[in-house]
Structures are given as structure tokens and as C-alpha cells.
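Quick board copy: two proteins, each given as sequence then C-alpha cells.
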Amino acid sequence: MAIASERRRAALHALGCGLKQHGYAFTTVTPLTHSRVNARLANGWAHDLSGIFGWSRAFKPAVVNATLMDLMHEADVLNHDNGMLRSVLRASTLDGQLYLHSAYPTNAADAVFFGPDTYRFVRAMRASLAARSAPVKRAADIGCGAGPGAITIALAHPGASVFAADINPAALVLTDINARIAGVDNLTPVESNLLASVDGQFDLIVANPPYLIDREQRAYRHGGGDLGAGLSVAIVDEAIKRLAPGGTLMLYTGAAIVANADPFRQAAEPRLRAAGFHWTYDEIDPDVFGEELDEAPYAYADRIAAVWLCATRPDGGA
């Protein structure tokens, strides 16, 4: 989804603000839950805003007021579906903020993900930010997606320069719009593979990268490497290079557990130890995306765990 013109960006911004003004709220669920709920007979088409912008159901124009409908047309987010309409974007709410992201199902190569992992990521990040006393002057969110990590930092540290990095231009457009909806003005979206396009050191690096093996290798889902951990390991390496003394990496990712061992942890810990970092490592959820265990790459995996790595370079570190 490429949205380049300022007019379309302005329409999306107004659409997001309009939804907030209508008291819109929606919590995005897993794809399996989404499919099951939408399959119910009563859910064949949308009857309200959450049906349109949350559940991605087809709708009749009369369901939406004229102002929102005009904005949807101007933002070019409408598809025709057997005489009805369907939005190509979803809207989810988190911590009082609204985030525009890709509609269900997220099949496109440039889909912008938002889901249960996002809620766990932001919740863990909030707790770690509250426990961190060092100032944050420069921060980066690697693989920002729809921008919840970067926007959460920008709101918590309004004096910081926050960089939202992603290789997906569609994600950067939505991050920019979502930041505008949140009233954030200290965030800079940047197209970048990891932090290659951003100079300097950082006080804080956060990431919620893809961590599965995706047969189609879609960027929002495919983690690469052994059992999906490739990108997460690369982020650890990048943080070791780019964090300033006292700087912290906050990484939410998934780890495929094999024979009761965690290969991602086994890869990350020697790197952090050699660099002199202090870190904590916790399983947030011991069993996510269980359906992936039916796929060939996970033939020997016991489970996939959602994990939280918080690693800090000492003040006197190199």
C-alpha cells in the first residue's frame, strides 16, 4: 500500500482523528480468532465502525457517516466487494492511541502488522522504560511497523529524537500518520535496513521484529535464519555496535524451543557477555503461534515462546 501524496496523508490523518472522536476502540486478535469470529453467520457484513475498521468486514455505505465516507474516498482506502465496500486498512487502539495498519488478512508482501504481539511488546516496554532512570535523548525503533514502539517512546520522552526505522515504505507512511494522530512531533520515519541509514549512537533501541519462518518470506513475518531467529540476532549485534554507554536494548521476539533449549538465547548471551552488557531475559508467553508447529521448519520444535530481552551497556563501556 503506497500512499505518497500529502493530500492522501492528510485524509488518513483526518480519518484516524475522526475515528478517535467517535470513541472508536478495537483490540486486534490473532488471525485464527479473527477468522473464527468473522465466520459466524451474524458477521457476514459490518454493522458499525469496529466491523469496518477492526474486523475488516464488507459494509454498506449507509453504515458510515458522510464525513468519514468522504475521507475514506479521499484517502483511497476503499475496495469494492460484490456491491459492498471494504476498507484496505484496519484501526487498532492501544494505550488510548489509535493505529492504522493493514486490513485482515495480511497477505500482501508489504503488509503492515499489528496484533497481540504488539500489545505484549508495548506493555513490556512500558515497564522497562519506567524502571530505567537514565535519560533518553536519542532512540530508535527497528522494524517500526505501524509505529507503536516509536510513538510510545516519543510520548514518554517528548524531548528525545526518536527514529522509526523500517525497510517497508508502507509501514513508514502509516507510522508518520499514526504519529500525527497521536500528536507526536519528535519522531522521524526512516527507510533503513536495521540502522544502516541512521548515523550515531542511541540511548535506547527497541524492536518487535518478525520471528517466524514464512514460506513466502513476507517482510512483516519472516525472521530468517534458524527457526526465525536471524533478524533478532542481527538486532542484538546492531545494538551492541550502536548503543551509547548506559544505552539499553529492549527486544520483544519469539524463540522456537527445541528439546527444552532456546537457540536464540544461546546465540544472544555470548554476544552480550563479550560486549560487557548486563541483561535480563524473560518468557512473556510460553506458547504462541502453536499452529506453526505443523509447518516443516518446526518439525523438531516443542513450542514457540514470546520472550523479552532487556540489555544495557554499562556507563563505562566501550
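And the next:
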Amino acid sequence: MRQELLSLPKGLAEEVSRNLVMVARLIDEDAEQAYAYSRIALRLASRVAAVREAAGFAAYATQKYSEALAEFRAAKRMTGSVELWPVMADCERGLGRPERALAMAGEPEVQKLDKAGQVEMRLVAAGARRDMGELDAAIVTLQSPELASSSVQPWTARLRYAYADALLAAGREDEAREWFAKTLEADKDGATDASDRLAEIDGVEFVDAAAAHSDLDDADEADADDEDDDQDPAEVAAAERAADQAEYYDEDDEEYEPADDADVDLTDELVVVEEDERGKA
């Protein structure tokens, strides 16, 4: 791509490059925004193959399959490369033309693809079979040396997942479970939801621990509110007064000096008071 951009004036090349970087950065997180950046790059440099390819992938990510197919075809014409052949076939599927996708799977271009491209083409062809309601044919299409291999390649998880999913759709649940488990073994990056599919087959339901904890807290608060509602208002007021007194008479307060019961004789006090009263009389 760098070599292609060198054909542009320096300022223009930098502007196009910035937009292509944003496409690559956003395409998995915000496809619509990535598409917007791709349109800017396309307007600036429509004769650059890398720009047409990026625009094609951005349109593909937003399910604008007709537009994506046109951009991929343009990029193919400019470069003469067939590496976009599988995704072009998948655009045909997206446009509701699985027959064309199958026809492309039988074209000579497929033989020029590398191993990863050929596996991708097989996945697209199997998907086209499923689009046409031919589940058994889709299963057979996926059966290949790459599927049977025990070695893990970049495409292994996706290939095993597609095979397991086709088996499940055909009602072959035991086999599907086996292949979802094999998918999980190969899917080190978590690119598929094989673990969820396995749990679904086994009838296991996962509970969000954080949500469950929040629900328990809400329930405890509700119970506390109910208890408050059931208390006698007089009892509540008495408890509050007792709490106020306990707070006022703080034993840790330097000004608080509790009386020593051992040094006080209440009887003597009463006698003194009575004698004083008689004297006054």
C-alpha cells in the first residue's frame, strides 16, 4: 500500500493514509464510521487499488454488498490479484445470489488462491449451500483435509465451527457437540462463541455474577424498608432518644464525669434537706 500511495503528491498521500488508518482502526468497532472514512479516501484517490480495497471492506462490514462487490472488482482489475475472490463470492451471497457464489467456487481463480484463501472459499461455498437449503451438501463441502487435520492453523477454528454449526442445523447434535469442543480447542483467541454453543447443547445456563449480586442487594434493601414500615412509631422515637442520650453522655468525653455510686449516700442527702427545711420553718 505504501508503494501505491507514493504515486500521489506528498500532501495528498498523507491525507489518504490518515483516512485508511482510521478505516482499519474502526472497522471492527464502528463499521459505519469506518465506512465514512473510506468514502473520504475514495474521493481523494479512487485510482489507488488499496483505497478501493479498503472501501470494499468498509462497505462489506456495513452490509452494502453491491457497493462492496463493485469496489473489490475494481481492486482486482487494478492489481490482477485473486485474493479477494472469496469475499467477492460472499458478496454474491449477501445479495441473495448463492448460485453465483457456488459458480465462483468452481472457477480457475480458486486454484490460484493460497491455502487460507481456498479454505475461505470452501466456507463461502458451504454457506451458499445452506442458503439454498442444502444442509447435507454443505456438510460434505466442509469435509476436507484441512478439517481432518489435527494441526491448528489460523483458519482451523472457523472451519470447525462452520462444520459443527451445519451438523447442528441438520439435527446431528452429538456430532455437533464434538466439533464445537474441537473448535474450542483451536480457538485460543475467542474468535467464535463455541463455548456458548456447547453450554447451550448441554443445557447449561450462565448467570451474571455482578447482576445477581446487585439483585441480592436490592432485595436486602427492600426487606430493610419493610422492617422499618412494620415498627411502632413510639418505639422508633424511644430508640432515637436513647441514641441521642448515648451520644451526649460520651464516656470518652473529658467533661463527662460519671458519679461514683460507692461514694454517694442518698439517705444522708435526704436527711440534710429535711433539717434545713425545719430550720427555715
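Board note added afterward: The CA atoms of residues 11 and 197 lie 50 Å apart.
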